[in-house]
Design a protein that fits this description.
Helix content is 68%, strand content 5%. With 212 residues, the protein is mainly alpha-helical.
Length: 212
C-alpha cells in the first residue's frame, strides 16, 4: 500500500499503537499513569518525525526556530495574558521554565511540521498552502482544547475554563511566520509519518472528547 521503508512502517505502527493504547488507557484503564506519559509520548513523536533530518542544517535550524518561537510566545502568553488569553499550565506536561513546560516547544515543532508537510502536498499556490497548514493546526487545537483541562495540561481562566475565540486567532497568527518559512523554503519531511501523526492525534482527541 505504501512505498515506504521498513523503518517508516515501524514508525507508523509505533504511532498508532501509542495513540490507541493511550486512549484506551486514559478512558478505561489507569488514567493517571497514561496521562503522566504525555511528555514522553510527545518526545517520542518528535524523535520519529525528526530522526532522519538531524543532519540537515536547514531542518535543524527550523527545529530551533520553531521551538524558540513557540516557547517565547507561550512565556509571554502565560505570564501576561496578552497573546492567547489568560491561561496556565498544569503538571501533566512536566518540567516548566517561567511557567511554561519545555515539552510545549516540542509540541510546536511537531504540530508545525506535520501540518505544513501535509499542506505542501496540496497542488495550490504557496499562500494557500500556508493557509491550509494553519487551518490544520487550528482544527487539531480545537479538539485538544476541551480535553486539556480534564487531563491537567492547561486551562483558561475564562468562563467555563474553555479557550476564547481570541486564542485561536492568536494561535494562527503565531503559526503564520513558521508555516510561511517551512513552505516558502520548501522544507520537506516524511509525508507518511506526518499524515499518520496528524490523523492519529485527531482520532485520539476526538475519542477523548466524546467518551471522556
Amino acid at each position: 500500500m505504501f512505498k515506504s521503508s521498513r523503518s517508516t512502517f515501524f514508525a507508523l505502527v509505533t504511532i498508532w499503537a501509542f495513540q490507541i493504547f493511550g486512549a484506551i488507557g486514559i478512558l478505561f484503564w489507569d488514567r493517571e499513569w497514561f496521562i503522566n506519559m504525555t511528555p514522553f509520548t510527545l518526545l517520542l513523536y518528535f524523535i520519529i518525525l525528526y530522526n532522519r533530518d538531524l543532519g540537515n542544517h536547514k531542518k535543524v535550524f527550523f527545529l530551533l526556530l520553531t521551538f524558540t518561537w513557540g516557547i517565547f510566545s507561550e512565556i509571554i502568553g502565560v505570564n501576561t495574558g496578552l497573546i492567547f488569553g489568560s491561561y496556565e499550565y498544569g503538571k501533566t506536561l512536566g518540567f516548566q521554565v517561567l511557567n511554561v513546560p519545555l515539552v510545549i516547544g516540542i509540541n510546536w515543532v511537531v504540530t508545525t511540521v506535520i501540518c505544513g508537510t501535509i499542506a505542501s502536498q496540496v497542488k495550490v499556490q504557496a499562500p494557500l498552502q500556508i493557509l491550509i497548514a494553519i487551518t490544520l493546526m487550528l482544527i487539531l487545537d480545537g479538539l485538544i482544547e476541551p480535553v486539556a483541562p480534564k487531563i491537567d495540561m492547561w486551562k483558561f481562566n475564562h468562563e467555563g475554563g474553555m479557550a476564547p475565540l481570541s486564542n485561536y486567532i492568536s494561535w494562527g497568527l503565531v503559526a503564520l511566520p513558521l508555516q510561511s518559512y517551512l513552505i516558502l523554503k520548501n522544507l520537506r519531511f516524511d509525508i507518511y509519518i506526518s499524515s499518520n501523526l496528524y490523523l492519529s492525534q485527531l482520532l485520539f482527541f476526538a475519542a477523548l472528547n466524546f467518551l471522556n
